[in-house]
Design a protein that fits this description.
There is one protein chain. The protein is α+β, with helices and mostly antiparallel strands. It contains seven helices and 15 strands. It has three domains: 133 residues, no CATH class; 31 residues, no CATH class; 132 residues, Nucleoside Triphosphate Pyrophosphohydrolase, CATH 3.90.79.10. The strands form three sheets. Strands 1, 2, 3, 4, 5 and 6 form a six-stranded mixed beta sheet that branches. Strands 10, 11, 12, 13, 14 and 15 form a six-stranded mixed beta sheet that branches. The mean pLDDT is 95. The structure holds zinc ion. The site of zinc ion has 8 residues, from loops.
Length: 302
């Protein structure tokens, strides 16, 4: 799949990550003093946004805010350079009230649909890195508190010299298909009528295809015979990579594992089209910013 065709939210960031600057302390210091620099602020994983033209926009701030807000102890993350080579950074602040009326900290999941796609990709990357920092303050090798280096992209342990890099957890997410129908599951906690793709973490020693086959059999009792890669999506809740596939199965005698799912059901291609359009009546599918929506949409249009 070519890059511009990835249909998923949180992809296609307009920033050049310019990773060679991450170790350049002098360059980073100058960038944080430049008028050209923009700063994205988070509080408890919520990006700082404002209303604009009926939607949401990032409320970029000047870099000096970083020192003023007492965020010096938190990781300062270099996000990259925009098309004008202007640096972009992000940081977390503890006090949500400190910025007054300038904007509002919004929960990312509900805000995602109202944000422009390019900004969503920037926010998602920053959020995933901050989530990783918040869960990895101590060296995984020796247990000593580690410190942030390389502009937020590495944690270093001074006791044992180990370096730790932000981790990405691969998750396979799949829509099983059989001839002219597809299978979707639902979890008990979901809103009434919502059905979605099956999903599960890829385990050590598994190929993606093998994880797809195992999860599909475990969750729905369906035996996979062919796996087709669709697309992937970075998912910053907290720091996963969703690997989306369509998989053909051999049997339609589903047997849902009720420890993982509440129920599941088959949908015809026509029903899948109605789910995508939000016109099914009885059931509904996740919104377009979820890769499950894109998987279902692709299959429904075949
Ligand atoms: Zn250590």
């Amino acid at each position: 799949m070519l890059l511009p065709h990835n249909p998923n939210a949180f992809t296609r960031s307009p920033l050049d990550r310019a990773g060679h600057h991450r170790k350049d302390e002098a360059w980073l210091k100058a960038a944080m003093e430049s008028d050209q620099t923009s700063l994205l602020i988070f509080n408890k994983g919520r990006p700082f946004l404002c209303e604009e033209n009926g939607g949401l926009a990032v409320r970029w701030l000047a870099p000096h805010v970083h020192a003023q807000l007492g965020a010096r102890e938190q990781p300062l993350l270099f996000l990259g350079l925009d098309e004008n080579r202007a640096p972009h950074f992000a940081c977390e602040i503890a006090d949500a009230e400190a910025l007054g009326e300038l904007g509002i900290f919004e929960e990312l999941r509900p805000a995602a649909a109202r944000l422009p796609g390019d900004k969503l990709a920037i926010i998602g990357a920053a959020r995933a890195v901050f989530e990783w920092h918040s869960r990895n303050r101590f060296c995984a090798n020796c247990g000593t508190p580690s410190r942030v280096v390389e502009a937020g992209w590495v944690r270093k342990c001074d006791a044992c010299s180990a370096e730790h890099y932000p981790r990405v957890d691969p998750v396979c997410i799949m829509v099983p298909t059989l001839a002219d129908k597809c299978f979707l599951g639902r979890q008990k906690a979901w809103p009434r009528g919502m059905h979605s793709a099956l999903a599960g973490f890829i385990e050590p020693g598994e190929a993606i295809e093998e994880a797809v086959a195992r999860e599909t059999l475990e969750e729905a009792g369906l035996k996979v015979r062919h796996v087709e890669m669709h697309s992937t999506q970075p998912w910053p809740f907290p720091h996963s990579l969703m690997i989306g596939v369509l998989c053909e199965v051999e049997n339609d005698h589903d047997k849902v594992d009720t420890s993982e799912l509440e129920s599941g059901r088959w949908f015809t291609r026509e029903e899948a089209k109605l789910l995508i359009a939000g016109k099914h009546g009885e059931c509904w599918a996740p919104p377009p910013f979820a890769i499950a929506h894109q998987l279902l949409k692709t299959w429904s249009e075949r």
